Amino acid sequence: MTVSITDVARAAGVSASTVSRALRGQPGVSDEVRAQIAAVAAHLGYTASRSASSLASGRTFTVGVIAPHVGRWFFGTVLDAAEKVLSAAGYDLLLYNLGSPEARKRFFTKLPVRKRVDAVLSLLIPDEEEAAALRSLGVPLAMTVGGPRAGFTVVGIDDHAGATGAVRHLVNLGHRRIGMISGASEPLHWTTPIQRRQGYLDVLADAGIAHDAALEADGAYTVEGGEHAMTQLLALSRPPTAVFAQSDEMAMGALRALRRHRLAVPEDVSVVGFDDHELAEVIGLTTVAQPVAGQGAEAARLLLNRLDEPDTEPPGHVQMPIRLMLRETTAPPHPRGPR
User: Which residue has the higher pLDDT, 52 or 206?
Assistant: First the structure.
């Protein structure tokens, strides 16, 4: 005989709604009660019926995710963390990888998620027309990039402050010729490179250091791009004594280029990254740490909360903490510059 959620509720001495919240990992249930319900459900062999739940609630129990580059470490990490939270709550994930202008235009023209998802998590920054299209879906919306946006809950960091801290660290060490490896060309509509570049420029201005456009190079937010950009900076008649890379992957590429040119880090050139990639500590990279997985998990939790409590006003913007991690790739400049 099939065991129902009512049977579990009766055996556990709680309401059916409490059982539902507990088994889906939702708030409002104590750890003790949650554990008791899980034990009763396991003992009775209860398995939630997706079709019955969908009919009763009108939900698809699916969350759509749109991303610009799922193969990139940042987006993959955010996606993995969000999927774990959604899966634990009984939701499937429907992924759309919009890595090209054509794929992006096709998605926002056809909106294939309509009536197929209960919420949308965006790992890309929609323009105004795209944002309006997503709002027309009438479902909860969340983003993990960009600033506040009407109709969206945005979970992110202060990119300007992070870049400011990284570059100020180099200035405080005594560096005056500071290069920057950015990713201005990728991905579409991404504001992160703009905000991090502004932090770089603001610190230089505050320190009385004239900006030299030749000290900026595009690394496309990849290891290979970072290596190419560092090689470009080293070819200057006066190369930088320190480099701020807007991502750890570009910083790793920069380190590879420096090693290939037989330059020591940090004795010849200091390098600071951004992200605190899982390999950053292994290679001793000084970097700005941000909770990448934490942003994905928090965005997913906020979407689930909105689905459970649709009348509650969601937060418009949630800012996650960042901090500068001092490791082995930064030091005062060598008196003679890069040797």
Answer: 206
Q: Match 């963390």 to its residue by tokens.
A: 81
Tens of pLDDT, residue by residue over 323-335, are: 999 999 999 998 7
Rg (CA), the chain: 24
How many residues in total does the chain contain? Answer: 339
Least confident segment among 41-45, 194-198, 199-203, 278-282:
41-45
Smallest CA-to-CA distance from 79 within 251, 293, 242, 319 is with: 293
Q: Token pair of 89, please?
A: 């709550």
Distance CA 84, CA 81 (A): 5
Angle subtended by helix axes 16-23 and 5-12, to nearest 10: 100
The label of the residue with tokens 């034990």 reads 39
pTM, to two decimals: 0.81
Residues 10, 6: Cα–Cα separation, whole Å: 6
